[in-house]
Specification:
The chain is α/β, with parallel strands linked by helices. Helix content is about 40%, strand content about 10%. It binds glutamine and zinc ion.
Length: about 775
């Protein structure tokens, strides 16, 4: 019989209990023992849930108080000197200090945070030194195995493998790559495996997600070295080597040749691995087949999955096949149980973590020839989804068919449009603006919750929003900003706000997914063809513009970000879905323009993170991503300025793509990186206007005029000042008014000061 197994389970709990517990502890409302008791309860609940679903291989050590990469860093004793170095006492307070930093007298910067492969989960980047010492400082995997064992549940501990962990790390204060530390690190993993075997562990899952990437020779050699050693170290332990998010492709043959007991394949994202793996798998190697999508919310098509499993069972025999989700279920919401508000037809098409582990165990039984009738409801739901009239919109499809390449092109080029727009709107040298949102005051969040519960009527809610827009406009006028925003007070979230108004999108009540630490996101679900029944933003843009003589921007979330921060449909290519969203947003652009709005900002903070893991697939992605943005932007005529914003500063490798977007003005994050990205713009002769952020909004500190004039002067050396704007790094939604007011005053003062210096020295402007 194939073995029903899981790679990892969400940590946050069905009602974000972990978030509540963490934030109560941080705020001093609960003590440590209460937090730890809640964490223990959550772990027990997760194990019991998976056990009662019928899983045989249940993961442990997939839980974390903050982040599993950070846990691994502590496990191997790699504590940076500022947090006490290798001898530091390991516990929750050290975890939180490294994750969140320490403020007060001795300020300690947290570890850097960045995205986990192509997901929206963020991990903390290990900081390593060339002479880094390692030790088994925290046997967390052993502790959690024992904890489950005491509950009568035998688990499969999950480890982040040494090669991937090193590759995720960064060498500070030294030369060379982190992989040079492998020889020092391996003894820790060897000791850990021995301890696990001693505790009675039978199977260990070692995740090496780097196997899904294009690997340089050093990494391939490191994997070979690591697993030749670890695979043979403890003969009684069975190692499952797991990688996910993509096909193993060129790394498949090497992985199958390592001395491990099983290799996991992500057959959702890399179905092409199956046949070669079946052909190449040596005698005795088991395969774990990821047939249930761990990164998306759709119910598994049992016929597709069974076909794959049966091929493997025929070739290897049932006992050498493990059935699994494609990756850890960390990336999907916990349970459909709380989604009673979802339309029942749509709900039947979905599976969250709790439902996915049931799918896995039913598929394992069916692949072993037992209980095939259990799959009938899933089969019926998938057939209903395929046939549903809600999925396809013939009118939209006909419209997409009629699109011509000219519709992707804006009139004139950047410099020509600039002249036309400047005749319409007068702007000083170094104009000032913001990225869109102003502080989201708690009263507004409360009002929105009351509106949802029916305790506040729409008119009263809108009156509150109007007051807030008035306040934001008045503040910007008084502060002297040149191009205004309405402040986005009506938006709970930049994606959900649009998803709630678009056909083809559904939003959930509690479909939370961990983003980092206690932070969660609630991605909407795109289930069908997308269209826009009505204008979405025009009412607020027009209201705000009516309050002032200065221009006010229309604000849209771009098509790539709408797609990337949602659960996308899996029955058509992502690019096709993106084009549908783009068409809906194009109509919005045209309506804003017709309503007299002279600047429209289309935010694309997620453009870069959508880049596929394998380089071979990147060009195709960038092609459709650019085309979709252009389809939206080209809805605007020459007299309307199109702005865009992206929240990161690594531009060099995608600079050509950025230029192809042909946005009139681009704002980017730059303050923290010391404006280092300006070099890319200069080198590539970027033709349009740029606003490198001069105010680091991720910090509560108020930037001084001097800091910001310094940044602007630096910027004016790389980019002709006529094409430069003064802006913050990102939206101000998460900040308080007490910081934003002085910060924006300083920003305006800094811009005026540098502008007058530049005016005084015209040579500087050539
Ligand atoms: N306009 C959005 C805001 O200001 C942009 C946010 C973002 O880039 N993530 O909040
Ligand atoms: Zn941003």
């Amino acid at each position: 019989m194939p073995i029903a197994s899981n790679l990892g389970y969400p940590r946050i709990g069905p009602s974000r209990e972990l978030k509540t517990a963490l934030e109560s502890y941080w705020a001093g409302r609960q003590d440590l023992s209460q937090l730890l008791a809640e964490a223990r309860r959550l772990r027990a609940e997760r194990w019991r849930q998976q056990s009662s679903a019928g899983l045989e291989h249940i993961p442990s050590n997939d839980f974390s108080l903050y982040d599993h990469v950070l846990d691994t860093t502590l496990m191997v004793g790699a504590v940076p000197e500022r947090f006490g170095g290798p001898g530091a006492e390991i516990g929750p307070d050290l975890i939180f200090a490294m994750a969140r930093g320490v403020s007060g007298e001795t300020e300690l910067a947290p570890l850097d945070m960045t995205k986990w492969f192509d997901t929206n989960y963020h991990y903390l980047v290990p900081e390593l030194a060339p002479d880094q010492a390692f030790s088994l400082a925290w046997p967390k995997p052993v502790e959690e195995f024992e904890e489950a064992k005491a509950l009568g549940i035998r688990t499969r501990p999950v480890l982040l493998g040494p090669v991937s962990w090193l590759r995720l790390g960064r060498m500070v204060g030294g030369q060379g790559g982190t992989l040079q530390l492998l020889d020092r690190l391996l003894p820790v993993y060897e000791e850990l495996l021995e301890r696990l075997a001693g505790a009675g562990v039978e199977w260990v899952q070692i995740d090496e997600p780097c196997l899904s990437q294009d690997l340089p020779v050093e990494a391939l050699e490191a994997l070979e070295t690591a697993y030749q050693r670890l695979g043979r170290r403890v003969p009684s332990l069975r190692l499952l080597l797991a990688s996910y998010f993509s096909a193993l492709g060129p790394n498949l043959e090497m992985a199958l040749g390592l001395p491990v007991a099983a290799v996991h394949l992500d057959l959702v994202n890399g179905p092409e691995d199956l046949e070669p793996a079946l052909a190449l798998a040596p005698e005795g190697l088991s395969l774990s087949l990821g047939v249930v999508d761990g990164h998306n919310v759709w119910r598994t098509d049992p016929d597709r999955a069974l076909a794959q499993l049966e091929r493997a069972v025929t070739r290897l025999g049932g006992s050498r096949v493990l059935v699994a989700p494609s990756c850890s279920l960390l990336h999907v919401p916990v349970s459909l149980r709380s989604e009673s508000g979802l339309d029942p037809e749509l709900r039947a098409w979905l599976a969250f973590a709790e439902e996915k582990v049931v799918e896995v165990s039913q598929l394992a039984r069916a692949a072993g020839g037992q209980g095939p009738e259990e799959l009938e409801p899933a089969r019926a739901a998938c057939a209903a989804r395929r046939a549903s009239a809600r999925v396809t919109d013939p009118a939209l499809r006909a419209r997409l068919q009629r699109l011509t390449p000219e519709q992707l092109v804006r009139p004139g080029d950047g410099p020509v449009r600039r002249l036309i727009w400047r005749q319409r709107v007068s702007m000083p040298l170094l104009p000032t603006t913001t990225v869109g949102s102003f502080p989201q005051v708690p009263e507004l969040r409360r009002a929105r919750a009351r509106l949802r519960r029916g305790e506040l009527d729409r008119a009263a809610y809108e009156a509150l929003i109007e007051d807030e827009v008035r306040r934001v406009i008045r503040f910007q006028e008084e502060t002297g900003l040149d191009l205004l925003v309405h402040g986005e007070p009506e938006r709970n979230d930049m994606v959900e706000y649009f998803a709630e108004q678009l056909q083809g999108f559904a939003t959930t009540r509690a479909g939370w997914v961990q983003s980092y630490g206690s932070r969660c996101a609630k991605p909407p679900i795109i289930y069908g063809d997308v269209s826009r029944p009505e204008p979405m933003t025009v009412r607020w843009a027009v209201f705000a513009q009516g309050l002032t003589e200065r221009p006010v921007k229309g604000m849209l979330t771009g098509p790539v970000t709408m797609l990337q921060w949602s659960f996308a449909r899996d029955d058509q290519p992502r690019g096709d879905t993106c084009r549908q969203i783009a068409l809906a947003l194009r109509d919005e652009v045209q309506d804003l323009e017709a309503a007299g709005i002279s600047v429209i900002q289309i935010d694309e903070p997620a453009l870069r993170e959508g880049l596929p893991l394998h380089r071979g697939r990147q060009a195709a992605y960038l092609r459709w991503a650019v085309d979709c943005f252009r389809l939206v932007a080209a809805g605007a005529g020459a007299a309307t300025q199109v702005h865009t914003h992206m929240c990161y500063s690594e531009f060099d490798e995608i600079m050509d793509t950025i230029a192809e977007l042909d946005a009139d003005v681009l704002y980017i994050e730059a303050a923290r990186s010391g404006m280092s990205l300006l070099g890319s713009f200069a080198r590539h002769h970027y033709p349009n206007e740029v606003g490198p952020g001069i105010y680091d909004i991720h910090s509560p500190l108020v930037p001084t005029v001097a800091e910001m004039t310094d940044r602007l002067r630096l910027a004016a050396r790389a980019i002709p000042p006529e094409r430069l704007w003064a802006v913050p790094d990102c939206g101000l939604k998460t900040r308080g008014w007490a910081e934003v007011e002085p910060a924006l005053h300083n920003l305006v003062t800094a811009a005026r000061q540098v502008a007058s210096e530049l005016d005084a020295v015209p040579a500087a402007r050539s």
